[in-house]
Amino acid sequence: MPKVNIAKKSTDTDMTPFVDIAFLILSFFIMATKFKPAEAVPIQTPNSVSSQKLPENDAVMISIDKDDKVYFSIMAQKDPQQARDIIKAAAQARNIPVTDAQVAGYFPGDMIGVPFNKLGAFLALPADQKKTYVQEGIPVKDSANNELYYWIAASRSIFAGQPLKYLIKGDNVSKYPAFKAIIDALKKNDEQKYNLVTMPEGAPTGTELWVERNSK
Amino acid sequence: MASLDTGDGGGHKKGPGVKKAKKLSTRVDMTPMVDLGFLLITFFIFTSTMSSPTTMDLNMPKDTEKKEEETKVKMSGALTIMVGRDNNIFYYEGELTNENASQAFKSSTLTDIRDVIIKKKKEVESRYVTDAACEAKARQEGKNPNDCRQKDFFVLIKPTEEANYKDVIDLLDEMTINKVARYALLEPFDTEKDLINASQGGAPAAAAPAAQ
Q1: Could you give the CA distance from residue B138 to residue B190 in angstroms, rounded to a whole number?
Q2: Range of A127-131, A161-165, B112-116 with top mean pLDDT
Q3: Which of residues 56-75 of B touch A (CB under 8 A)?
Q4: Mapping DSSP to helix (H, G, I), strand (E, B) and coil, where does residue B106 land?
Q5: How many Cβ pairs closer than 8 A exist between chain A and B?
Q6: Is the Cβ of B211 closer than 8 Å to some Cβ of chain A?
Q7: Where are the bilayer-spanning segments (chain B) (predicted)?
C-alpha cells in the first residue's frame, strides 16, 4: 500500500520581523518623547500646577529670553494673513513702511524681537538667515517709548470683536523688570487678563490643592 | 504515488561503533525578547504624556488714580512677601514700622515660604467671625461660602528689580497651591528695598533707578 506522507510543518514561527517591529516602535517612543521642536530662541519656562492647555489660535505671545530680551509672536495658525496684518498695522502706527512682500515671509509663531526701525530689514531677510540673525529684543524698558505698546495696540485693532489671549512666556532666569514692563504695556492698552506659559507640574502632596484634586 | 523515502537505510555509514554527532539548532527562541520589547513599549506609551506647555491665569487690577477705588487691606491679615536676588525670599506679617523692622522682617526660601503662608492663613481663619453678608453673597455667586473665612487674608507679592521671573511665578503658583483667594503683585517700598539690600549685603537702594 502506498504511503502518503504529510509534510510535517514546524509550529515554530520566525519571530525576527516581530522583534524588528517591536524595537522599531520602542525606539520611536523613546526618541519622540524626548525631542522638542527646535526654537529660534530657547526659553526654559517655570513649572506650575496649572493644567490649562496652550491655545494655538487667537493669541499673541510675548516672550522673555534669559537675557531679558522681549519678543513678540502671533499665534494664528488658522489664518496667517491675520498675523501679517498685525505687523503691517503696528509698523504703520510708527510710520514705518512695510510692504506686502516683506510681510509675506512671516509665519504665525515666528518671534519678532527687533525695534521698529530695524523691522523692515529683518522681515526682508531670507528664511534661513532669519534663524541665525541675532535679534536685540523689542525695547520695553523705557516707559516713554515702550514699543510693545504698539504691537499690542495693533493686535487689538486687528482682532477687534474676536477673543484675543495674551500669553506671556518668560525664561526661568529672566529678571522681573522685563516682566513688569510687559505688564505695563498691556495695562496701557487696558488689558488686565493674561496667561502665563508654564510647564505642568503636580500639586505638592499634602497641600490644599492636592487634597481637593485627590478627593474628586 | 511515488514517495521518496530517505528516512531509513543509513545510520551506519561511518561504520559500526561511530556515534553520529548531534546537530544543535542555531535558532534562538525570540519569544521572551518580543515579550520584553512590547512590555517596554506599553510602559513608554502609558508613562509618557507628550509634555505640552500649559498656561496659568493672571488677572491684574486696573490702575486707578482714585484713592477710594483702591483695594483696602486689613493690616492684621496681610502677609507681604518680597523676592530679592538669587532666590532670596523675605516676608513680614502685618505692617512694617521702624520699631518692629528688626523682628518682623524675616528671611526665608521658596520651600519654607509655603509653611509661612499656611500658618498665616490658618491664623486669619481662626479669627474669623461669621459674616452672614459675605457668605450669602458667596452662595449667590455660586462660590464656596468657606472662602469667606479667609476674606481678611491678603498676600502682597513684591518682586524687586533683581528678582528672577521663575521665583515670581513660583510664588504665584504657591497662591494656587494654598488656595489663597486674594493676592497682588506690587512694587516694594523704598524702606523695604533698603532692608532687602541690607540683608543681601548689597548697596543701599539709593542708587536704584526710580521705576515707579
Answers
A1: 38
A2: B112-116
A3: 56-63
A4: strand
A5: 171
A6: yes
A7: 33-52
